[in-house]
Specification:
By secondary structure, this protein is α/β, with parallel strands linked by helices. It has 2 domains: 167 residues, Bacterial extracellular solute-binding protein, family 7 (D-Maltodextrin-Binding Protein, domain 2); 118 residues, D-Maltodextrin-Binding Protein, domain 2 (3-Layer(aba) Sandwich). The strands form 3 sheets. It has a 5-stranded mixed β-sheet with strand order 2-1-3-10-4. The longest helix has 35 residues.
Amino acid sequence: MNYKKILMGVLMLLIALIISGCGSNEVSNDTNGGETPSNKDESKDTITLKFASASPANAPYTVGAMEPFMERVTELTNNQVQFEFYPAEQLGKAADLLDLVKNGATDIAYYGSPFYPSKMPIGSSMVGIPYLSKTSHQGSMALHELVKQSPMLEVDFLNNGVRPVITSVTRPYDFFTGGKEIRTPDDLKGKKVRSSGGISNFTFELLGATPVAVNTPDMYEAFDQGIIEVLHMFPSTLNSYGVDELIGYGTQGANFGASAVGFVINEEVYQGLPKNVQEAIIQAGDEIVDNYSAYGDEDNSNIIEEWKKADMNLVELTEAEQEAWRNAAAKVEEAWLDKQDNRELIQTLEKYKELLKKYEK
């Protein structure tokens, strides 16, 4: 018996099996540069995602939503997903972040729908209508459910090459000045009011004020220099940007509009991720929307109490004054919707109002 030939044959067989085994673990690429569906679900390679934000590192939205989201995704994927985080407009101005994520300069980015009236025509036109949501939690839960449905998913997100990850509605806005009281809509006449754009511009012009579009990071300087006389905002954001030190007076209960904010992921990037990572992103997003919006409402209330202790003049509006704001809100909604030629907006607004009832406490 030729043992040398037998040994050589066994050796060749082992080499063939090793080569075959190695080949079965390779990740093949499709024409879009992503993994094929069969291997995509099995890949356990480390994935690093770039995340760009306009908010400072110490802002409530950063601490309460963005950081917990990243930590949760990493946890759910057993450290498979890691993040490179760029807060405080390090990669670009707030108004540019949607384009940056769409064009692939970052994978995930913060957005504020009022910045994009033409690109997000539903969110920018709808959420700013006064007297819709009563709390951030109510509005956030309703809108986060709504953005996953047609037509808002396609119109405001997929058409821009992005997919919603977290969608939040801010706390209802009040009015803050350096000292002069604003108690009714008539008190805004002739004033320069900070506006986030879109429907806010329309609202203040309708009420006889002059809207001045100012991004959140620029509020302090604009208010300090008199570029704006009235801040249309809520306490926790004013506090995080240090604007509270300039405020002498604020309303409680005007409830005059809000904004849709959140973050989005590049759609091609999302579709190229393994299934377990996609599921982790969606799960983390759902959890954070619920947790952060409730936390945000509580944080806002705590800041109001701190301001009161510091002798800031925060006046709770009387029922008659609140009625004046409600009447103004109805006037704004009617005039704004008459101006729109957007059937999808009307359809989505009706859905949103129904969902708000679902989440009202």
